[in-house]
Amino acid sequence: LASEKPELMKKFLLKNVRMRIGKDVDMKHFTPTYNPWEQRLCAVPDGDLFKIVKQGKASIETDEIDHFTKNGILLKSGKELEADIIVSATGLNIQILCGLKATIDGVPISTNDHMLYKGVLLSDVPN
């Protein structure tokens, strides 16, 4: 459905977020500029993020970091966010088979040389 009717899927997902997040939270922080599956989506399977934002225990800022300051970070919009700790989480590093280095009789197996079935079983490899 997402590939055939991306605008409809986006509308559905955003309506679901709005229902969970409440009326007082700015949806711009949850509205991507792209349609679903044109890029990766951030999933919140159990909705815990929405609950704590709705309760005011956390907030969301969608911006770019201009630079670090003595007390936190300055965003490109000019807003400064005070922070005791800054955790860098800017990318996703996917490893095929979780980085598994498999061997058969001491000979390394290159995953590029095999088909992967259901995300876990390699062709021509004893499972």
TrEMBL record:
Domain of life: Bacteria
Protein keywords: Monooxygenase, Oxidoreductase
InterPro entries to which the protein is assigned, alphabetical: FAD-binding_MO, FAD/NAD-bd_sf
Name by which UniProt lists this protein: FAD-containing monooxygenase EthA
Entries under SUPFAM superfamilies matching the protein: FAD/NAD(P)-binding domain
Any GO MF annotation of the entry: monooxygenase activity
Needed cofactors: FAD
Similarity annotation: Belongs to the FAD-binding monooxygenase family.
